[in-house]
Amino acid sequence: MEEVLTKIEIVTRPEKFDVFKQELAKIGVSGITVAEVKGTGLQKGYKETYRGVTREISLHDRIKIEIVVCEVPVQQVIDLARKYFNTGKPGDGKIFIYELANVIKIRTGEEGRAALKNEQ
Amino acid sequence: MEEVLTKIEIVTRPEKFDVFKQELAKIGVSGITVAEVKGTGLQKGYKETYRGVTREISLHDRIKIEIVVCEVPVQQVIDLARKYFNTGKPGDGKIFIYELANVIKIRTGEEGRAALKNEQ
Amino acid sequence: MEEVLTKIEIVTRPEKFDVFKQELAKIGVSGITVAEVKGTGLQKGYKETYRGVTREISLHDRIKIEIVVCEVPVQQVIDLARKYFNTGKPGDGKIFIYELANVIKIRTGEEGRAALKNEQ
Amino acid sequence: MELADSVFMFVATMLVWIMTPGIALFYGGMVKSKNVLNTAMHSYMPLAVISILWVTIGYSISFSEGNAFFGGLDWIGLNGVGFEPGPYSDTIPHSLFMLFQMTFAVLTVSIIAGGVAERMKFSAFLLFTIIWSLFVYAPLAHWVWGGGWLAQLGTLDFAGGNVVHVSSGVTGLVLAIMLGKRKLSGENTPHNLPLTFLGATLIWFGWYGFNVGSALTINEVAMVVFVNTAVAAAAGILGWLVIEYICSRKPTMLGALSGAISGLVAITPACGFVTVPAAIIIGLIGGAVCFWGVSYLKGKLGYDDALDAFGLHGVGGTWGGIATGLFATTSVNPGGANGLLYGGFDLFWKQLVAIVATYIFVAVLTFIIAKVISYLVPLRVNEEDESLGLDITLHGEKAYHESI
Amino acid sequence: MELADSVFMFVATMLVWIMTPGIALFYGGMVKSKNVLNTAMHSYMPLAVISILWVTIGYSISFSEGNAFFGGLDWIGLNGVGFEPGPYSDTIPHSLFMLFQMTFAVLTVSIIAGGVAERMKFSAFLLFTIIWSLFVYAPLAHWVWGGGWLAQLGTLDFAGGNVVHVSSGVTGLVLAIMLGKRKLSGENTPHNLPLTFLGATLIWFGWYGFNVGSALTINEVAMVVFVNTAVAAAAGILGWLVIEYICSRKPTMLGALSGAISGLVAITPACGFVTVPAAIIIGLIGGAVCFWGVSYLKGKLGYDDALDAFGLHGVGGTWGGIATGLFATTSVNPGGANGLLYGGFDLFWKQLVAIVATYIFVAVLTFIIAKVISYLVPLRVNEEDESLGLDITLHGEKAYHESI
Amino acid sequence: MELADSVFMFVATMLVWIMTPGIALFYGGMVKSKNVLNTAMHSYMPLAVISILWVTIGYSISFSEGNAFFGGLDWIGLNGVGFEPGPYSDTIPHSLFMLFQMTFAVLTVSIIAGGVAERMKFSAFLLFTIIWSLFVYAPLAHWVWGGGWLAQLGTLDFAGGNVVHVSSGVTGLVLAIMLGKRKLSGENTPHNLPLTFLGATLIWFGWYGFNVGSALTINEVAMVVFVNTAVAAAAGILGWLVIEYICSRKPTMLGALSGAISGLVAITPACGFVTVPAAIIIGLIGGAVCFWGVSYLKGKLGYDDALDAFGLHGVGGTWGGIATGLFATTSVNPGGANGLLYGGFDLFWKQLVAIVATYIFVAVLTFIIAKVISYLVPLRVNEEDESLGLDITLHGEKAYHESI
Ligand SMILES: Nc1ncnc2c1ncn2[C@@H]1O[C@H](COP(=O)(O)OP(=O)(O)O)[C@@H](O)[C@H]1O
Ligand SMILES: Nc1ncnc2c1ncn2[C@@H]1O[C@H](COP(=O)(O)OP(=O)(O)O)[C@@H](O)[C@H]1O
Ligand SMILES: Nc1ncnc2c1ncn2[C@@H]1O[C@H](COP(=O)(O)OP(=O)(O)O)[C@@H](O)[C@H]1O
């Protein structure tokens, strides 16, 4: 089983997520997990004022999308992400790539590549 | 120190989490981190309708449980997870296994295996 | 490119996050992602009572800070984290260290070390 | 006709009206976030369904002349219920009295929802409330206020302890038992207590209309009622929190709100018949016994009265009815009677009869109605819907949406 | 002067007053969480701006004697508007009548906000409301209530179907079209439905003051209005939910709330002229046509009336005006007229004239005012502000803060 | 006795009543989510504790005949306080007047909570409010309304600028200083502004009862009060937002709400004595000075008046008292006096005396009471409880629960 399991973690703006998700499905990604996070990076912060007291806020609302793939080429996912999330303005975010040791499908107990297959 | 540090990441339904947590404690897991996430996979979506306008929602409420272990056998955790979270219906989720480079306990500065030990 | 990419994941109390963030910026960390999580560990739980029915709660509010670095020394981040988050009481949390395969900057497409550089 | 009385009853009607959405918010805050809309809908729908029912037929079979058990059909479709004062007050329009009573009929049904929360089918509950309102509420209102047998017997129920609170509480209990426990009945973690706070506020606010308005004018009795209502609610908070403090050292906000409502329920039947010190005692004990009801009795007997429809309204209403038999005095209200403490064993006995009769009548009828409905529609949602939440599965909605 | 009437109108004024914050909460719950403060501000600011405008000049040009189209300037700065009863009621202080009407002027403007939500600039909206209130609302109020041409023509509009609801609805629609669609107009996911529930509750609560108070006393007509308002709202809920159930099998909470408001809008012009059964029918159809307005018409024509200012108030108000022409009967109110069903083709025709005139006048003026303003301030925020949310970009605030 | 007046005062009492839960929601939305229940409890408990205290003894020592400084004990336990009109009004039941005043006593205490939020111990606060109500509020009410020395002196305080607002504001300030700053006092990020919006709405709503009801009947003065209250609140919003806009270009929702309350506080003592244009000016300046109080003064002096009990009620009330001395005119209210602008240097001087006396009396007594209590219970929670949040540590509850 010289299969390679890869986790692609995308931290980006929430806006285009819906279309991105649909595109992923088309290239065969079988599952996505997404979480709301806050992020700070090169992007400028904004100001909040409550009763005359101003606070500089440098944390922005971001989402973290996690996609574990085996057969689907990683580069294809990266390209899609860049296509949808690149606005050219600071704050677009990063994609982090990790290797996994294994993945198990809870329902069936299948492991590795099989666990990530789309049944039908 | 040829110890192996492993992170077990379980993405699944929130329901049985309480019992699962108690079982983990029994086999010696010293800590758990859990987050609310949304997930999409093979499970069918549902419909929301507001003022006659219907939207297909394919993101489900899931939790992501992260458990880092060293001495506790990984397989034991996987078995427990499958025992509690397997309902047989699509949407049960996946278990992702990663290797860690190190773990540090903030309070004591201990590293690796020692950082994960249950003191008493 | 024998560069090493490292993810530092800190699970800890939310309190000192603001100062910690500012210190990180000083040592050259270019981005942080943070999420609200719940955690259970060695710390004692607390009780909630609603209409006379008591429930033991062992999940505490924690934050998970993720910092991916390349040039910034990992140890420096760890030291800072220990400096700010170590209260000496159970519940201070852990730091998990992972290796990454790659990182891509969505806006520019830069990879690896370059993706993590602070432009100006 | 007295214009000022009409204005007063307009105000009182508005106050009682807002108790119903208050109940919806009160209950809604206590359930899990995936069931808040369904729970609120249960308490909101009576505003639609029971209102129409009331003008069509409910008012007539409750308040028009009939026999000792049922009202007649003379006022069906509001026939003869117009601007002319009706038999219940010379100083306000008959239609205004009818609307004031409508808010009671609506409210009573909306309280029941607390017992069935997080598992009953919406359609079954809707059906149930319609039939229940006609066959349980209307007769009961007739017995007590419409000149029926309890009125003739001489029992006292100033603003509806039996008619509104005991009846809805017992109904909630019977339904809770018939439905069975929620899958996770142990996890009573209210998803949004500020919502519950707001609901409890509107309920208390409206209760002044409920109790004081039941005098139908601002007279001496009405003023006693006003003071009694204020202090009994206050005492209910204290009663609950003191016991809570003794048990766990933590006086809770939910406890304070529950205590206020306990005190209000307890004073409801008594408010126009007792002195202010008696009202304080009734409130204090009301808070305490309701705490006992929700924390001990429920656990002991093992039914899942999810939001304590019985624990607050049933237990509190029962205590209130008994307390009326203890503390009532003709020195406060010559139209009333003397309770046990003033030598009136008679009244005490009648109060018990009224309570027991209400329990039996309501429990039996509720059981029969629910049983019959269960042949048409399942009373309870299936397991999957319960775990996904009733909001999305029954109503296709979610209460809260985050940015993703 | 009649003290009880003054008390009644004080109460009615308070009730209508709370409708405006009710609208703010109702709307606020329906938008995304990043726009809730801005949306609520749109509906809240009229309490500040329009109130001052009203006492300064608005009341005078609405209600003082003038010609058929505009009121005069006699009452500017409340000159002559004091404790002495004014021409509109002998039994209440003139200043009380003025305040009662102030709450209408404020409310009308706050309804408009629904059409422009999530994209209009705060400054532009503020400016718009000031000018609109003077040049659209005031004349309209004069036409119908201040003795203007619609009053002279003999059209019926009991509590403000045209003046308040059609006018604000049409304005919302025109602005929505001028502003264009929101970037994500398809994603109508209310961020906090319990907030919307609360808002709708306050709106309904206040509506009793709106409709019943429009009688200016508690007389026979006022009581009919009270009953009609209650049953029409109830029927509106049923009308909406039945259609919704037929379409999707899921009766929603937002639907129930929207249905209640639809029924209330629909009965507003008719409430003092029709029988109770007619009110039920008006409410039922009101719920149904408004559902059609928001789910079909809006989609078909493709405008982004974000929170359905037109869908509820415009469509419902139009139906209410027509329904008045159908169901009005002098047997209920001798001061009214007979509608089509009672042989009064005349009234029906006049009602249509009033509605069409209102549509045209409001639409044209709104367009002109908004156009003029757009030369001073952009009407719409830029794309980045829209996607970051109007709360943070225009107001420097966020509605909710978590622990980090 | 005049029935319509009684109805009016019933309504006014209900309106003031709802201000207290309004304060709880207003404050609750402004704190961190881990402290919302505790904060709301502080403002809610007076409904329980002070109510009972009031009927027992508070009313007597405030309003019964005594000397220039304290009332007597004649009306203890409501002895002699029944349906018969009391000395303060011939037209309403004495007990109704007592209840109306009860809502003031309760409200005043609940305002204080804003100064101590997020760090004071619940038990200490409870104890404090009981003693404070007897030894500070009751005398103060006696001085101004019960025929005490300030009344005899001829100072004007129509609805309670000194008694309610200055007193609670100064108390909040002294307690804030004694408690010290919160650990994270810089991070004033309201966790739920819609909740604050709702609270502010209920407060404003109730304020009409507070001010207009203080006339005890609907007469010419009452109507002026009604108009003045409406426009001063409106002007307060504008005053605040204009300054805010100048400072940061961002008019905030919290600013609008705070401005409304500032305007209302400022007009409270003056409302029955000034003309409408004066009310607008008082409101405008009220909004502006309160903004200055919370944004500049607080930062400058460095106390942590967490939710600005002093910033709004203290500063606004002080300005209102001064403004009464400036703008009062007997042309509005012959029972009043002429202010500085109408040649009455006398009144202006007396107003200053009243304010200074209130500051000193309240500050000294508050300090003493809090000091004494601190020997029994620590005033402040420990560091760990503060950082974990007061809801869980003191009350064993959390306001919100997510699905896990
Ligand atoms: N080194 C990093 N480690 C963790 N998260 C990061 C890192 N750099 C960026 N991020 C995440 O990506 C988001 C966008 O990054 P930012 O630097 O603002 O944009 P860009 O990559 O377009 O310059 C940040 O808000 C943060 O959540
Ligand atoms: N390849 C994947 N990458 C990331 N998350 C996944 C992946 N596959 C599944 N998940 C997560 O697991 C959840 C359940 O997966 P799903 O495919 O619906 O169920 P099952 O594994 O039972 O077929 C999803 O909602 C998603 O959060
Ligand atoms: N083995 C682990 N795997 C995942 N998360 C952990 C683990 N150990 C600790 N944590 C996280 O760290 C937090 C603090 O851990 P705890 O053991 O209570 O404190 P300490 O490390 O100071 O003894 C926990 O609440 C949990 O979120």
What does this structure look like?
The complex is a heterohexamer, with 3 copies of chain A (120 residues) and 3 copies of chain D (404 residues). Chain A has helices at residues 17-26, 74-85, 112-115, and strands at residues 6-12, 32-40, 46-50, 53-57, 60-69, 94-99, 102-105. Chain A is built from 3 helices and 7 strands, in the order βαββββαββα. The model of chain A has no long low-confidence stretch (mean pLDDT 89). In chain A, helix 1 (17-26) runs antiparallel to helix 2. Chain A is 22% helix and 38% strand. Chain A has 120 residues and is an alpha+beta fold. The longest helix of chain A is centred in the middle third of the chain and has 12 residues, at 74-85. With 404 residues, chain D is mainly α. Chain D has helices spanning 3-30, 36-63, 94-116, 122-144, 149-153, 161-179, 193-213, 220-248, 253-267, 276-301, 309-327, 345-376, 383-388, 390-395. In chain D, 72% of the residues are buried. At the D-E interface, helix 1, helix 2, helix 3 and helix 14 of D face helix 1, helix 7, helix 8, helix 9 and helix 10 of E. Strand 2 of chain A pairs antiparallel with strand 2 (32-40) of chain B, so a sheet runs across the interface. The complex binds adenosine-5'-diphosphate (3 copies). One adenosine-5'-diphosphate sits between chains A (11, 39-43, 60, 62, 90-94) and C (30-33, 66-68, 105, 107, 116).
